[in-house]
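User: Show me sequence and structure for the first protein, then do the same for the second.

Assistant: Starting with the first protein.
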Amino acid sequence: MKVKNLKPTIGFIGAGNMGLPMIKNLIKKGFQLKVYDINPKITKRLDKDNIKTVNNLRAVANNNFIISILPDTQNVESVFNTDSGIISYLKPGTIVIDMSTISSSSAIEIGKVLQKKQIEFVDAPVSGGVKGALNANLSIMVGGKKETYKKSLDILNSLGENVIYAGKLGMGQVFKMCNQIMVGSHIQSMCEAFALCKSKGGDLKLLKETLIGGSANSWMLENLGNDVINKNEHAGFRIDLQLKDLKLASEAAFESGVPLPGLSLVLALYLEARAHNEGKNGNQSLFKTYDRMSNQK
């Protein structure tokens, strides 16, 4: 009689806009989850969907794998704090996959602390936004020991279609920073091109289709171009989060002594948007900054 291979149990920390669809996709793939979120309103909603939740980090710890996806470095450091976080409850041999976007130096330090307790750790930030999380086609950039990466692949492949081993611990975060530099620059150049075309009375929809057919095409143009044309400010990925990621990239560049003037420009433009209380808008809403600078509506 054949015994079915049981999927490992997962403790999942963070059920926000990205975390929730990832949780649902893992459940669809047959994984058993215990979910913790600091917001009780979120866990109540999960309970109604028959998703198993717990009300403290200790209850998450007794699982083969732990996944965390949280807003920023401070949140992740709080969860993996040696005094009040989850570390003292984790058993040796547990694999921790942090899918947040945080500083690479913080990821490295967390990994060192966990390693001392015989707990494996990879940093695995994602790209693709809420749409990618919903469709389980995220890009996932993984840093850490290759053996740990391989052990995590079944889980990661359930969440993304482009799972890359980026190298040593912290390198996943470096790859994500590079990704976000290009994301911000692509949005900025799209808004700039549209602002020029509009100032001359051009047809923006025709311009978009023309650019898609040539070497100026990008994921941002294909997926967010219509939002810019239609003045749609919906938040797939918020300006505040874009700023957080660009700040991480800027700090990493400063640490390495690498001048990145393009990054500095994009960071300044997004700061202008936040200064106008637009931080909760989608990152494509940078068009509003260009509307102000060019005095166009």
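Switching to the second protein now.
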Amino acid sequence: MIVFTDILRLLSDHGWSTYRLRAEHVISSGTIDRIRAHMSISTETINTICRLCSCQPGDIISYEPDPKEEEQE
């Protein structure tokens, strides 16, 4: 399963509060809610985060085997 780092903390470290992201229409409220809930986000959003934080996708996402999926095999 795909696991996200603490994206909001990373953005905050680069000067982007959730208020600023919304106010400047950089990331929508719905997407911020998805990030908070550790739900999937679009590649467009990942691109935006990487641009804002000068990072690579691998810096914010990783793959970890899901124990539930391994039990089914």
